[in-house]
Amino acid sequence: MRVTNSMMVRNMLDHLKNNMGDLNDLNEQLSSGKLFQKPSDAPIKVADSMNYKSQLNRNSQYQRNLGQAENWLNTTESALKSGTKVIQRARELTIYAANDSMTSEDRKSVAQEMKQLRDELVDISNAKLGDSYIFSGQKTDQKPFEVDNSDPDNYKINYNGDEESVKRRLNENVEMNVNLNGKEVFEKEIKALNKIYDDLESGKTGEEIGENLSAMDTAINDYAELRSQIGGKLQRTGNVIDRLEANEIHLRDLKSKNENADLAEVITELKMEETVYRASLASGSRIMQQSLVDFIR
């Protein structure tokens, strides 16, 4: 094949163009810190990075869900703790009032504190987390219990919520129920306190008043069991949070290795490409200077 001067110049220009392209790619990596600037630069790496980013987004959403679940469970546990104290105090008053040495006037005085305990339990049942009532089922904008004052001689409470579960997804495979049904947790306890109040007000005997103790014991045991369930759920959410945080660190490390440039390596390659480019320019200058006139001299 006959090699002409124009062929050598074209080849030289093609190589210069390629060298400049490589030099530009390395300069962009050095200035941005990234191995690629657009999908066409590294399609497989871009797909991997998009996958890592998607996993990180899901991880972040699960962590937000867990934060909400923990807040809900902690608020519920606090309400149950307060409710337990109310029931325990009501039990103490019931034992005190069941003593046959108590007069009807004494029992009416005890009744006033019992009434306050009843109303306090209603307030506890209407606990809120932010703008949400936690014992209303999925009707979180509705106050769970309201006292019906239409008949002053007949104490009545109405439950305004529903009995649906409030759930939060903790990860791809786990969805947790984070609420307790206010109707099941508080209604019979409020009515039990009101019954003791009525018994004290109506002059029932000590033996009749003492018959309410079994309801108090049942309520205390039920609340202890519910608090144990809440504690187990809080333990589980804590374990899941630890796993998600560890997984986030791992995913961020993989994403970083996939798309972040090794600056030391890029600088080394950049210097090598600069040397190649300068050598190409030097070689090209010799080729472009040669002409027929140069040889006639």
From TrEMBL:
Keyword Cytoplasm part of the UniProt annotation: no
InterPro entries: Flagell_FlgL, Flagellin, Flagellin_C, Flagellin_N
Flagellin C-terminal domain boundaries: 214-295
Coiled-coil segments on the chain, per record: none
Transmembrane region(s): none
Source species, domain of life: Bacteria
Keywords assigned: Bacterial flagellum, Cell projection, Cilium, Flagellum
Gene3D superfamilies in the cross-refs: f41 fragment of flagellin, N-terminal domain
Ranges where the Flagellin N-terminal domain occurs: 5-140
Keyword Transit peptide: no
Any GO BP annotation: bacterial-type flagellum-dependent cell motility
A molecular-function term among this protein's GO annotations: structural molecule activity
GO cellular component, one term: bacterial-type flagellum hook
Subcellular location: Bacterial flagellum
PANTHER family: FLAGELLAR HOOK-ASSOCIATED PROTEIN 3, FLAGELLIN
Entry similarity comment: Belongs to the bacterial flagellin family.
Protein name listed in UniProt: Flagellar hook-associated protein 3 FlgL
UniProt organism field: Halanaerobium congolense
